């Protein structure tokens, strides 16, 4: 009798939707010395709550973006008509004075004026006052140019009249009804044309080949992927992780009820299963979820590495309210220390560790591919998806920029008498933390979906 119960239980476990989504999402991750369970505990209990608080602060909730750039690759059929796609930009008086007025580069003249007198003296002393204005400007220019060469993303011109502040808390990422051919087109062009993949190798589950797949395509695809160097494999997995994360948000904030008197967003389990159940995705779903964890680790690593930059006394989360700014800087540093304390990071010493010339070429390939992906975001028809797409690619691009600038960042505290060798703009900082906030939320949401699926049995 007992045996039967146990067997029944076993059957139930192995056959449930819960296990079909999560069976492979456990234990060690490939290319990485860490396991899923440790990440879950660390994120859900420690990091996620702190990060949520930080992202509600004024410094992080206002993001400036240009949502009106034309798509450089094809003519898009804009979805401005969809109600839930509309992004409500902020009116100027909603954005704190400090954010609007500073040009966010703390080495710029305006920023210097905002420092108090004491700091100003220190700062100018550090910058070397013997420089003529002309030389200093030239240095700034050079710095800008230099920076351009290190960029992984197109940064929207903050001065452009088309750029507007958006309050991220009032424009949450959620299901908008934007899907179908255009959505496919965006992701297809990213995977097909920007992930180093030759056309001859077909991605599993390409639209149109859904049910025809005999498993041959998958085998070809994964053996191609295995044959790639670790960096290009990593690149593909980051993009796949980002895609998974976005789909988790859309399933977790699905428009469940839409009537004239109320709108209700919430978890849609069947939407989640459609994306991640191994049976419904020919085995792809769990792999996507593993890539999400991989993305999480890469961004976590970048945060840990960026600590010395944010620790600089001259760095501020400037909004014009000194007490709050100081409090939020402390919270940010706590979060970064926490990221640093996580022991089982992806080992990126194996990245770009090969022949120096080859490594430089590879880094550049990856940078250019990523730059192109950020341009594709201007082709996303739905404005709300475009906003969050831009923010998340920019955040990931900033993370990559940090990871590839490790030496410059480590040198920062001692390099005060030279021009700073590493710099992040406010836009990069806001996107870095918000993008990571999205991934962190996704990991947290997986816990919800796990229990919802377990309830369904
Ligand atoms: C950039 O992306 C577009 C659209 O997917 C593609 O047609 C083009 O080949 C890509 N360019 C580079 C340099 O990767
Ligand atoms: C959940 O999503 C599916 C599509 O995956 C849709 O058909 C269904 O209506 C949604 N459920 C609710 C309650 O909105």
From TrEMBL:
Cysteines paired by S-S bonds: 80-85, 382-385
Q: Which residues bind FAD?
A: 174, 176, 187, 240, 243, 275
Recorded GO cellular component terms are: endoplasmic reticulum membrane
Please list which residues make up the signal peptide.
1-19
Source organism, top-level taxon:
Eukaryota
What is annotated as the active site? 382 (nucleophile), 385
GO biological process annotation, one example: protein folding in endoplasmic reticulum
- Please state where this protein is localized: Endoplasmic reticulum membrane
* This protein's UniProt keywords: Disulfide bond, Electron transport, Endoplasmic reticulum, FAD, Flavoprotein, Glycoprotein, Membrane, Oxidoreductase, Redox-active center, Signal, Transport
The record describes its membrane topology as:
Peripheral membrane protein
Q: Which cofactor does it need?
A: FAD
What Gene Ontology terms describe what this protein does at the molecular function level? FAD binding; protein-disulfide reductase activity; thiol oxidase activity
Which InterPro entries does this one have? Ero1 (IPR007266), ERO1-like_sf (IPR037192)
Q: Which family does it belong to?
A: Belongs to the EROs family.
What is the protein name stated in its UniProt record?
ERO1-like protein alpha
Q: Which organism is it from?
A: Seriola dumerili (Greater amberjack)
């Amino acid at each position: 009798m007992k045996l039967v119960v146990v067997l029944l239980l076993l059957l139930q476990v192995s056959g449930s939707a819960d296990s079909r989504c999560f069976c492979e999402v456990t234990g060690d991750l490939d290319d990485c010395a860490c396991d899923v369970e440790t990440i879950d505990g660390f994120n859900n209990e420690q990091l996620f709550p702190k990060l949520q608080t930080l992202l509600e602060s004024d410094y992080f909730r206002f993001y400036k973006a240009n949502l009106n750039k034309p798509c450089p690759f094809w003519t898009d059929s804009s979805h401005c008509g969809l109600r839930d796609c509309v992004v409500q930009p902020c009116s100027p008086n909603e954005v704190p004075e400090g954010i609007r007025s500073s040009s966010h580069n703390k080495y710029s003249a305006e920023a210097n004026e905002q420092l108090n007198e004491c700091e100003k003296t220190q700062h100018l002393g550090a910058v070397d006052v013997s420089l003529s204005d002309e030389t200093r400007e030239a240095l700034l220019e050079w710095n800008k140019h230099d920076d351009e060469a290190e960029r992984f993303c197109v940064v929207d011109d903050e001065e452009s009249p088309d750029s507007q502040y958006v309050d991220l808390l009032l424009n949450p990422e959620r299901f908008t009804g934007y899907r179908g051919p255009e959505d496919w087109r965006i992701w297809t062009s990213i995977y097909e044309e920007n992930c180093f993949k030759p056309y001859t190798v077909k991605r599993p589950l390409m639209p149109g080949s859904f049910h025809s797949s005999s498993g041959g395509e998958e085998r070809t695809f994964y053996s191609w992927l295995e044959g790639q160097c670790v960096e290009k494999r990593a690149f593909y997995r980051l993009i796949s992780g980002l895609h998974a994360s976005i789909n988790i948000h859309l399933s977790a904030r699905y428009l469940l009820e839409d009537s004239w008197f109320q709108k209700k967003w919430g978890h849609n389990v069947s939407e989640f299963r459609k994306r991640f159940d191994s049976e419904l995705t020919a085995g792809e779903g769990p792999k996507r979820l593993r890539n999400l964890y991989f993305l999480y680790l890469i961004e976590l690593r970048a945060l840990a590495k960026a600590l010395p930059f944010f620790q600089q006394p001259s760095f501020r989360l400037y909004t014009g309210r000194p007490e709050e700014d100081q409090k939020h800087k402390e919270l940010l540093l706590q979060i970064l220390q926490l990221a640093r304390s996580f022991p089982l990071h992806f080992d990126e010493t194996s990245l770009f560790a090969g022949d120096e010339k080859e490594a430089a070429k590879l880094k550049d390939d990856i940078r250019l591919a990523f730059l192109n992906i950020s341009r594709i975001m201007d082709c996303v028809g739905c404005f709300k998806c475009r906003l969050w797409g831009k923010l998340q690619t920019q955040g990931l691009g900033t993370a990559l920029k940090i990871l590839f600038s490790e030496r410059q960042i480590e040198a920062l505290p001692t390099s005060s008498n030279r021009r700073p060798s590493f710099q992040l703009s406010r836009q990069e900082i806001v996107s870095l933390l918000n993008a990571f906030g999205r991934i962190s939320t996704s990991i947290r949401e997986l816990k919800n979906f796990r229990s919802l699926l377990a309830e369904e049995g």
